[in-house]
């Protein structure tokens, strides 16, 4: 049942983002930034944490979850290092996910040999 819930929650988030892309003139990059900032704000307010615990991977994998992860890292960084933690915390919290995305993206490019569109 946990997988079904994650699939449904992730699907609803993706459907809402697709509607935002279709119904507004916002560029995809701005929508991505909006999602990360929204995840950080919802985490700061205390809404996203309980939602992510309930929804599982359906809420932690999308960009909203990345924003929440950055917020948690900044909060922990401030607690440990003071004002310098604002800068260090986000990098420390997001480093593993970003590194994994780069490594697996590179490996996929080696396996599938992508080509430019004409």
UniProtKB/TrEMBL annotation:
Which InterPro entries does the protein's record reference? Spore_V_AE, SpoVA
**What keywords sit in the KW lines?**
Membrane, Transmembrane, Transmembrane helix
Q: What domain of life does the native source organism fall in?
A: Bacteria
Q: Which residues cross the membrane?
A: 6-21, 33-51, 93-112
This chain belongs to the protein called Stage V sporulation protein AE
Q: Which organism is the protein's source?
A: Cuneatibacter caecimuris
